[in-house]
Write a structure and sequence with these properties.
This protein has 551 residues and is of the alpha+beta class. It is 23% helix and 21% strand.
Length: 551
């Protein structure tokens, strides 16, 4: 039971690493996953995303701590517990983030993580449905579908963005992110295309790859400061120990990776001692710097019978299911997020800090059941929150989930930007493109106009976009808050890396699945001792008058 590499977590990053590391036949690799195999039909159906999230079979469904600024509400943090991880249960929205996100990473002390450094890996990982060009890849394992919206609400949303004075962008992940454009999704031939499908399935038969599901890691094993093994319980509950010759790679996600580090005695010394854990290595940044994208939803009545609500009725659902089963087409092949806007909240903001995305159906916030009328909703996502949270141990028992405190809207600047986002959505739906479609505002309702009114709505209804990240952030050795170096190696230890969304210095400007896959692609070369792909210098659009203009 000895391997060259042990990868903990078969999620968005872990599946990539399993593929790339086993490409060298001399490497014997063990992939450990706490969840089951990804064989459920619901994991293949794009429109089944809500049913996957409301089930705990493939979802950790972590319950957050009471959020002080959200009326003490506990927010559920959905994370994949299955082969493919969150890429097997997420909303499939594919956004790379803005080029300036990565320039920010580089300036934060992460050498080799500028946009020109990461673009080659974004290209390597994808086959883009819109066609390869200077920005997009055409031969990668991850199929990315470019939406071609036909429904009147999405088309009105895109047109209204232009009417409101925003640019139209041909590719949110290409030359210009800012503006309104169609959404990309990780779907191929009508099926969800997770990293399990893209990266792991093609290499499962490699003799140098061993996959263990239902494997719950208890802690890492060290010889001094060198990581030498992993202790876990198998699918029968029996304790197992495996040893490593080269490296252990934590890819358990922004919740799981810091949790395992702290259970192993790596983290803030005072907190570990309070939990009764012997301190192996005092590393204050473990679990700190938690980033997320807060989300708020506005709902509107639809004056025309063009929403997707009738398609959620039992007979219509049955017909749509049969269509998908027989042809892999129709409404079930879509995630229903086909139009989005990336905009700046005001003058002086250098690049977009708000993401707006329309859904041609409105659902109840608590139950996620469709409203029983023709309606639509628009999500306001804050892309660069100033608030920071943390992940801490609940106890020293591996079976106890960690405490998750995001501190949503704790920083007044976040609250201010979210209020601006709500008002900007109202401006967009007041454009001529929506004149025959938009009815009354169901929520928060036009009576909610003042800052105080909007704050009350935010306190009661703001939630998460499920983009937890940055809890083991990259940085230089002199950075006391950094957990890993720009190669993912844990500071002060040997034989141990972290490769997942937890190592982002700060969250990217958009959904985090695509950047997480890129991280694993890039660091797989570093782990294998291969030279990085050549940098790609391309032009990226930025509003020439951003200092004085909002749009």
């Amino acid at each position: 039971m000895e391997f060259d590499y042990i990868i903990v977590g078969a999620g968005s990053a872990g599946c990539v690493l399993a593929n790339r590391l086993t490409s060298d036949a001399s490497n014997r690799v063990l992939l450990l996953e706490a969840g089951p195999e990804n064989t459920a039909l619901s994991l293949k159906m794009p429109a089944a995303v809500l049913s996957n999230l409301t089930s705990t079979k493939h979802n950790w469904a972590f319950q957050g701590e009471p959020e002080p600024e959200l009326n003490g509400r506990r927010i559920q943090h959905d994370r994949g517990k299955v082969i493919g991880g969150s890429s097997s249960i997420n909303g499939m929205v594919f956004i790379r983030g803005h080029a300036l996100d990565y320039e920010g990473w580089r300036q934060a002390g992460c050498k080799g993580w500028g946009y020109a450094d990461v673009l080659p890996y974004f290209k390597r990982m994808e086959t883009y449905g819109g066609g390869a060009d200077a920005y997009r890849g055409g031969t990668g394992p991850l199929y990315v579908h470019r939406a071609d919206p036909k429904d009147p609400l999405t088309l009105a949303f895109l047109k209204a963005g232009e009417q409101a004075g925003y640019p139209a962008t041909d590719d949110i992940s290409g030359f210009g992110q800012e503006g309104f454009g169609v959404s990309d999704r990780t779907v191929f031939k009508g099926e969800r295309w997770s990293t399990a499908r893209a990266y792991l399935d093609p290499v499962r038969k490699r003799s140098n790859l061993t996959i263990k599901t239902q494997a719950h890691v208890q802690n890492l094993i060290f010889d001094g400061t060198k990581a030498v093994g992993v202790a876990y319980t198998d699918d029968t509950g029996i304790a197992q120990t495996v040893h490593v010759r080269k490296e252990i790679i934590l890819s358990a996600g922004a919740v799981g990776s810091p949790h395992i580090l702290m259970l192993s005695g790596i983290g803030p010394a005072n907190h570990l001692q309070e939990m009764g854990i012997d301190v192996l290595h005092d590393l204050p940044g473990v679990g700190q710097n938690l980033n997320d994208h807060p989300d708020f939803v506005l709902k509107y009545k639809c004056k025309q019978p063009v929403s997707f609500w009738p398609k959620t009725k039992p007979l219509a659902k049955l017909a749509a299911g049969v269509q998908w089963l027989t042809t892999r087409s129709g409404i079930v092949a879509s995630n229903l997020f086909e139009g989005l806007g990336c905009i700046r909240s005001g003058p002086g903001v250098e690049y977009p800090d708000l993401q707006l995305i329309i859904s041609p159906i409105a659902v109840d916030d608590a139950t996620w059941e469709p409203l029983q009328e023709h309606a639509f909703q628009i999500h306001v996502g804050l892309m660069r929150a100033h608030s920071r949270g943390k992940i801490e141990l609940r106890s020293n028992k591996p079976s106890d989930p960690p405490r998750i405190m995001v501190n949503y809207l704790q920083d007044d600047r976040d609250r201010d930007i979210m209020r601006k986002g709500i008002r900007l959505v109202r401006n967009i739906v007041d454009q001529p493109a929506f004149s025959d479609l938009k009815g009354d505002e169901i929520f928060p309702g036009y009576d909610a106009q003042s800052d105080e009114d909007l704050d009350q709505a935010l306190n009661a209804h703001a939630t998460t976009q499920w983009h937890l990240s940055c809890t083991a952030r990259m940085g230089a050795a002199t950075d006391t808050g950094a957990v890993v170096d720009p190669s993912g190696r844990v500071h002060g230890l040997s034989g141990l890396r972290v490769v997942d969304a937890s190592i982002m210095p700060f969250v990217t400007n958009g959904n985090t699945n695509a950047p997480t896959i890129m991280l694993a692609e890039k660091l797989s070369d570093d782990i294998l001792g291969r030279a990085s792909l050549p940098r790609l210098e391309v032009e990226v659009w930025r509003h020439p008058e951003y200092e004085t203009c909002r749009r």
